[in-house]
Structures are given as structure tokens and as C-alpha cells.
Amino acid sequence: MVTILIALVVVGAFAIVAYPYFKPARDLDISFAAASDPGLENLVVQRDATYAAIKDLEFDHAMDKLSDADYKSLRAKYEAKAVAILQELDGLTAAQKRRTRLAVSDEAIEHQVQQLRGSAAKPVHCAKCGTPAGARDRFCAKCGAPINR
């Protein structure tokens, strides 16, 4: 009984640790996308700095280093700055997603066109019975003879 319990704990711990490796990929993560775009990287740094300033402000207020009036005015200032940064960040990431989606869809369309052109260029028939064969057929569906391409 104890060994079963230990095995369940080990399997559970492994599942928790391995979960991030097996979950489906989400949209582009801002922190990874920032590595290629300096404007995006700058916004991410500003966002993180503003969050840290708000956190420090909360701590200073909790420790009675700031009066309520100063706290409220500084908090409103940092919140407005954070909102502006987040809106700009959302605009950049939305534009980047649109560009990525367009590039992917253009590539997919071009690939499909090439496939259609390739299959339409060479109609293949069975050498034995003359039945038309599909693009991926290796043997005739009617007589079973091998298809020579």
C-alpha cells in the first residue's frame, strides 16, 4: 500500500513538472517576441519598471513612509503610465500577429497552388487498362497493375 502511494506521488510530481513541455503553444509570448523587435523590448522593459514602481509604492505606503495623499497621487500617475504602456504593447503585438498570420496564410496558399499545378500537369493512366490514376496512387484501382510515373 505504501509503495502504491509513493508511486502515485512520484507520478503526480512528474506530471506537474512536465506539464509545461506538453501543453499546446499559445500565441507569441511578448518576452520572446521582444528579442527581435527593439521597440517591443523597450515597452516590455517600461512595463516591468512601472509594475516594480507600483509594487514599491505599495510597500512604502504599508510601511507608513508615504502619506495617503502622496500615495494616491503617485498611484494614479503610475497606473496611468501602465495603462498607456499596455495599450501601446497590445497595439504592437496585434500588428505583429496580423503580419505573422498573413505570412503564414500566403505560404499555405502558395503551397496549395503548387500542389494543384503539379497534379494537374501530369494526368496519369494505367498502362494496362487505361484507368485514370490519382496523384498518390501506386497501383491501379481497377486492375491492380503498378502505375508508372
Strand content: under 5%
Q: Count of DSSP helices?
A: 4
Distance between the termini: 64 Å
Q: What is the count of structural domains?
A: 1
Shape: elongated
* Overall helicity: 55-70%
Largest sheet: 2 strands, antiparallel
**How many DSSP E strands?**
2
- Cα-atom radius of gyration: 30 Å
- Mean pLDDT comes to 82
Helical/strand content category? mainly alpha
Query: What are the secondary-structure elements, in order, as H or E?
Result: HHHHEE
Query: What low-confidence regions span 5 or more consecutive residues with pLDDT below 50?
Result: none
Keywords:
4 helices, two-stranded antiparallel ribbon, mainly alpha, 2 strands, 149 residues, 3% strand
Question: What can you see in these coordinates?
Answer:
There is one protein chain. The mean pLDDT is 82. β1 (124-125) and β2 form a beta hairpin. α3 (38-62) packs antiparallel against α4. This protein has a two-stranded antiparallel sheet. The longest helix is centred in the middle third of the chain and has 54 residues, at 68-121. It has helices at 2-22, 30-33, 38-62, 68-121; strands at residues 124-125, 132-133. The protein is built from 4 helices and 2 strands.
